[in-house]
Design the sequence.
């Protein structure tokens, strides 16, 4: 398909599982283009489009057609992006929804070469796309291609960071816990106590210990933790990587961890309040809530 876009994948049949970021976006986009008054572009403002309101899902299909001229594709994308920058809300969701085929393809390609959680990859790819929507130059050709590459670069940076991140011995928690138990006598000793001890020793901050416990000992993904603490997934991933390196140095007796711990203790932790809006809260936001939030934005 033009501009490297592909068709939608089938919906997941599983129930009860948390919605992935792109699934949430797909549902929100579907609500925006459904009903008697879908979010639409006035086709008369773009030469080559039908002279009538064109719903964004129809517009996406028109732009994906092999017969679509590159000039028309760029002109239509430029109008959608300008509306996203001016109005935000529904038009930002609409722009991302139009790019869903490309975003799914990017995530599939990155996922084939990484063991990262799919939610983390999708959140980072979507973040990269939305950042590009706000900054991409509209006076240059191949807007859709450049948006896709921005999304791909964001996801690729996360996968490279994950590959290069230090990987502490998976038995390190239990080894240290056993040593502590032997030294202190009977009692409850486990990974949580190791993290608590690192906080007391000044190696980790409370926020870092919570991040490691939630994403390593529980089933929470980095992107979900980041959404709960109103911070970017990439920042949360970097925070965890640095904290785990200091923790590994501390537990193995390596030098230099105390200075790193003091430096991190001065960092301002993420504010623990939930984000508002689609850009900041995907993936955890629900589709109905987003639909209510974006209703009534001028087309």
Sequence:
């Amino acid at each position: 398909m033009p501009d490297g876009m592909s068709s939608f994948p089938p919906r997941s049949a599983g129930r009860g599982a948390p919605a992935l970021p792109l699934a949430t976006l797909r549902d929100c986009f579907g609500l925006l283009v459904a009903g008697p008054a879908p979010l639409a572009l006035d086709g008369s403002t773009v030469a080559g489009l039908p002279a009538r309101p064109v719903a964004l899902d129809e517009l996406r299909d028109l732009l994906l057609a092999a017969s679509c001229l590159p000039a028309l594709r760029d002109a239509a994308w430029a109008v959608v992006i300008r509306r996203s920058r001016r109005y935000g809300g529904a038009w930002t969701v609409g722009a991302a929804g139009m790019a869903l085929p490309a975003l799914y393809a990017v995530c599939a390609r990155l996922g084939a070469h990484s063991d990262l959680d799919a939610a983390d990859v999708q959140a980072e790819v979507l973040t990269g796309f939305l950042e590009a929507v706000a900054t991409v130059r509209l006076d240059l050709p191949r807007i859709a291609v450049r948006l896709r590459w921005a999304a791909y670069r964001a996801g690729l940076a996360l996968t490279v960071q994950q590959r290069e991140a230090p990987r502490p011995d998976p038995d390190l928690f239990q080894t240290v816990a056993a040593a502590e138990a032997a030294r202190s006598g009977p009692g409850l000793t486990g990974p949580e106590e190791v993290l608590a001890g690192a906080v007391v020793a000044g190696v980790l901050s409370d926020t870092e210990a919570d991040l490691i416990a939630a994403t390593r000992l529980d089933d929470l993904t980095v992107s979900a933790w980041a959404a709960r603490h109103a911070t970017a997934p990439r920042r949360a991933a970097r925070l965890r990587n640095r904290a785990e390196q200091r923790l590994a140095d501390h537990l193995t007796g390596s030098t230099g961890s105390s200075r790193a711990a003091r430096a991190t203790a001065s960092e301002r932790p993420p504010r623990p309040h939930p984000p508002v809006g689609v850009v900041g809260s995907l993936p955890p936001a629900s589709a109905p809530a987003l639909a209510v939030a974006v209703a009534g934005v001028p087309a």
